[in-house]
């Protein structure tokens, strides 16, 4: 079948490769000319080695990057759906633009599938009317379905094939056609949702569930500290119960899915309560780490803090809504007299934040080498659970810092080893 994937960023690239590797004739359209040129030269924009291999294999099988959309039997839309903070709503501009491009190419008998994460109702009430501008009748002349993507960054090539998929259409035939497309390339089970809106709702519920569960762990971490006990020991023990599965506390929840999707879920409902509280708890973790640093150091006045980890989570290079960067911003924003940090008082000197991340290359982020960030530091914070951080030699770190305090917000380090090297080791 001829497929046109609209948007070959992280999700579209992998999805296009999936179908090309399974015998489909796939064009990957993206308006980002540089991205397309790099891909044509065999340089997919990813640091995940297995995804890179998977994409190169697909290109050998004819997966074709393009700066123009093309006619196809099936159009797959994988464009960004950012959250407009000011409007408090999902920004649907990319979906609408992609819909118009599809409408210009649409033929009777085509299928259009939206993979992007969207607020409930988008496929039926936003995308389908745009497609109808083609003059064709939705449901009669062409099919429209939502198949949300659920891959976990860092494990994409496995989850792309093995995850279950939820598919909902604007009508039964739309769902049938989308299921027929995905079934042969999916090892997981395909579940038919009653309609596209339910499929959208389910995707958002999965991410809100995880966000709430992490918020519960983060709240437990704060409560456990009030009792002078280790939250991770307590959570590990609690999880021995057959119906309890608490996640891990950390410096906050980042990425462009979990911190946003709960707001998509509540976009046209006034009933979010617990989900909203969870967002507040998770966003509050950077302030909590600042409080921990302050209580360890006594003062943050002029403190040199090494923040290790600006990726939003371990072993990835994505910095969107990164807890490490949020912590850095919070530390850098402390001003004399600031109530959040009583120790940075009148006449205080700003905090010197040093950022280091072995996975991230970003000209916009002032990153330093590990040694440069540790040299003369008053405290170290581990804010992403990169495997590389577990290999940092605590004796060497001890020889570089001026004060041996480490706040291991992701419990990545060997606590005993760092304590033996003379560090005051604090975790969440
Ligand atoms: N990244 C993830 O882990 C993940 C997982 C599940 C779902 N999603 C969802 O998938 C969607 C895409 O996310 P992503 O991470 O791939 O984003 P991305 O930013 O990596 O890629 C999106 C691509 O779309 C292109 N684009 C923009 N406008 C376009 C248009 N009108 N037509 C064609 N292409 C256009 C951009 O140039 C970009 O290359 C989002 O809705 C996201 O929430 C992402
Ligand atoms: C339901 C679900 O699984 N959805 C996944 C999620 O992918 P993700 O990469 O955003 O998810 P996480 O790995 O959970 O990380 C998010 C943040 O939470 C922190 N964290 C995590 C676990 C924990 O116990 N304690 C924490 O503090 C972590 O450090 C990071 O900052 O959304 C994608 C897009 O929709 C989905 O496709 C993908 O399936």
TrEMBL record:
Keyword Oxidoreductase: yes
Reactions performed catalytically: UDP-N-acetyl-alpha-D-mannosamine + 2 NAD(+) + H2O = UDP-N-acetyl-alpha-D-mannosaminouronate + 2 NADH + 3 H(+)
Keyword list, A-Z: NAD, Oxidoreductase
InterPro entries membership: 6-PGluconate_DH-like_C_sf, NAD(P)-bd_dom_sf, UDP-Glc/GDP-Man, UDP-Glc/GDP-Man_DH_C, UDP-Glc/GDP-Man_DH_C_sf, UDP-Glc/GDP-Man_DH_dimer, UDP-Glc/GDP-Man_DH_N, UDP_ManNAc/GlcNAc_DH
GO molecular function list: NAD binding; oxidoreductase activity, acting on the CH-CH group of donors, NAD or NADP as acceptor; UDP-N-acetyl-D-mannosamine dehydrogenase activity
Every UDP-glucose/GDP-mannose dehydrogenase C-terminal domain range: 306-415
Enzyme class of the recorded protein, top EC level: oxidoreductase
SUPFAM superfamilies: 6-phosphogluconate dehydrogenase C-terminal domain-like, NAD(P)-binding Rossmann-fold domains, UDP-glucose/GDP-mannose dehydrogenase C-terminal domain
Enzyme Commission numbers on file: 1.1.1.336
An individual GO BP term: polysaccharide biosynthetic process
Sequence similarity: Belongs to the UDP-glucose/GDP-mannose dehydrogenase family.
Name listed for the protein in its UniProt record: UDP-N-acetyl-D-mannosamine dehydrogenase
Upper lineage: Archaea, Methanobacteriati, Methanobacteriota, Stenosarchaea group, Halobacteria
